[in-house]
């Protein structure tokens, strides 16, 4: 991609606050973007070949949305955690194994998508994020859901297509969790905490494609209570 094309994109971004450059084979984050640190609200560099996010990402203090789906990122810089206004972060289809230690400082974050990466566990940093609504951790290599998950503030947690065989009973204590997706994992019925059914806020539990028949779920104690929440929620959205 030529300089003139990039220049045109930068000029548009200066006016609109949106810089979008997808599927152009970029191998690095465009350095020229640092001229727009106070303008940009949205950066979308999806479907490129970016391997590193430079530390200068921390300077985009007004950024609300950062989309880097389908790149080649293996790690994220700590500087990313300075983005106090960031509400949406999409990093699907990269090679991430973990999140920066200070990730919990992204205090405005509402939507986080990390589908199709190489995470082995539910990152504990997520529990510090008070405004989180949706977390997508599907298609990773997560094997168990740890006790810390009880502090997660998310409304929806997607763990489909992982390798989960164990879930902490603490998941029933998530204060806002309404939707829990666990499809296509390695769960035995005995490993599914019954308190999810009997004693949680969860009103949609998706568990198809595990190591038990769905009809067996209906025989568990607490299933009636779960169905009451499920039906009440459905009526609300009907």
Helix % is 10-25%
Beta-strand content bin: 5-15%
Strand order of the largest sheet: 1-2-3-4-5-6-8-10-11
What's the CATH topology name of the largest domain?
Answer: Leucine-rich repeat, LRR (right-handed beta-alpha superhelix)
State the shape. Answer: elongated
Average of per-residue pLDDT values: 96
What's the SSE blueprint?
Elements: H1 3-16, E1 18-20, E2 42-44, E3 65-67, E4 88-90, E5 111-113, E6 134-136, E7 144-145, E8 156-158, E9 166-167, E10 179-181, H2 195-198, E11 204-206, H3 214-217, H4 223-237
Parallel strand pairs: 1-2, 2-3, 3-4, 4-5, 5-6, 6-8, 7-9, 8-10, 10-11
Structural summary, described in words:
The protein is α/β, with parallel strands linked by helices. It has 2 domains: 108 residues, Ribonuclease Inhibitor (Leucine-rich repeat, LRR (right-handed beta-alpha superhelix)); 119 residues, Ribonuclease Inhibitor (Leucine-rich repeat, LRR (right-handed beta-alpha superhelix), Alpha-Beta Horseshoe). It contains 4 helices and 11 strands; from the N terminus they run αββββββββββαβαα. Strands 1-2-3-4-5-6-8-10-11 form a 9-stranded parallel β-sheet. Strands 7-9 form a two-stranded parallel ribbon. Helix 2 links the parallel strand 10 and strand 11. The chain is elongated, with a radius of gyration of 20 Å. The model has no long low-confidence stretch (mean pLDDT 96). Pfam families: LRR_1, LRR_8. It comes from Scopus umbretta. This is Leucine-rich repeat-containing protein 57. InterPro entries: Leu-rich_rpt (IPR001611), Leu-rich_rpt_typical-subtyp (IPR003591), LRR_dom_sf (IPR032675), LRR_domain-containing (IPR050216).
